[in-house]
Amino acid sequence: MKNLKFSDSDLEKIEKAVKEAEGETSGEIKVAFIRESYDYAKFELLFALIAGFLSLGVLMIFPEKIEIFVKNMFWEYSPVYTAIFFGIFPFLIITIFYLLGNLSFIDRMIVPGSVMARKVNERAVRYFMESGIFNTRDRTGILIFLSFLERRVELIADKGIGAKIPKDRWEGVVSHITDGIRSGKTLENLVESVRECGIILSEADKFPIKPDDENELEDNVSVLER
Length: 226
What we know:
Elements: H1 8-21, E1 28-34, H2 41-61, H3 63-71, H4 79-100, H5 104-110, H6 113-130, E2 141-147, E3 152-157, H7 159-162, H8 171-183, H9 186-202, E4 222-224
Parallel strand pairs: 1-2, 1-4
Antiparallel strand pairs: 2-3
């Protein structure tokens, strides 16, 4: 959790917001965090390979200058040294750029946005099913899923909610959290958005609390691995 920059106090604030949001409705809200929804390794490798081939192309354009450069590195020169340099340098570039590709801001530059959106959605749906959010008594579970590398948010409402509240009603909630991630106000915007979910669920008494109502989903934040 340290790497996601949330303290225990922050998590308690989110949990408190969930409890308050569920206080006037039978709806169940679950918040989950994940560092990244996919490893994107093939895009990082492709990025590195392209950089390596480009570096080799640059070397081929200036063979004489490269040979002079290599000669100046040794007292006793052999043409083999230049050949070795041509072979090793691209692999060095590939290694460096592959490591750079593991940085979050580089990933956001080299991975298509459509791919990131699909992978976050797939991971959110998987957790929605694995965690049992889909299995509340009246199918009134909501998942707020934050994926930090991609800076994307998925809000999945079960069919009991979808039957009464249109999907576009949640767009403002998602946008507010996403804006918070981008502006460094993740905690504040998330807490506000959780409370907004409670307001939406409780408006017009669409999901009233029943006499035998139970808290079917834990209110704590779930921190997930890929």
